[in-house]
Amino acid sequence: MGTYANVKYRKLAGGLLRWLASKENVEVLTGGKHVIVVRHAFAERPFPIPKLGNEVNKHIIASFQKWLEKLGVCSKEEFDERL
Predict the structure, then answer these.
(1) HSE on the CB side for 79, CA within 13 Å?
(2) Which of these, 25, 33, 36, 41, lies nearest to 64 by C-alpha position?
(3) What is the pLDDT at residue 32?
(4) Sign, CA torsion 6/8/11/16
(5) What is the end-to-end Cα distance of the chain in Å, rounded?
(6) Rounded to two decimals, what is the model's pTM?
(7) What is the DSSP string of the chain?
């Protein structure tokens, strides 16, 4: 997947976030009514994923993928497969 499109929240939560929660050093929390927070043990700051309606913006998905890849949690191919 070269660029990302807006992703339905159910698809993100049902596949990618559930898989990430099972990974070592990663914690997925609901930070409120419209925010999901992904924390990594070695990251300086958690990654908030805002949810507007039932979709997550494509730019946030792209930034999230780069953040996970930088931390070594998953590769781009693994991310695309779960998404």
Answers:
(1) 19
(2) 36
(3) 73
(4) positive
(5) 10
(6) 0.88
(7) --S---EEHHHIIIIIIHHHHTSTTEEEEE-SSSEEEEEETT-SS-EEEE-BTTEE-HHHHHHHHHHHHHHTS--HHHHHHH-
Closest CA to 38 of 55, 52, 54, 18: 18
pLDDT tens-digit profile of 8-63?
A: 888 888 888 999 999 889 999 886 777 889 999 999 999 999 877 788 989 999 99
Q: What pLDDT, on a 0 to 100 scale, did the predictor assign at position 46?
A: 92
- By residue count, the chain amounts to 83
- Of 68, 42, 41, 71, the closest CA to residue 12 belongs to 68
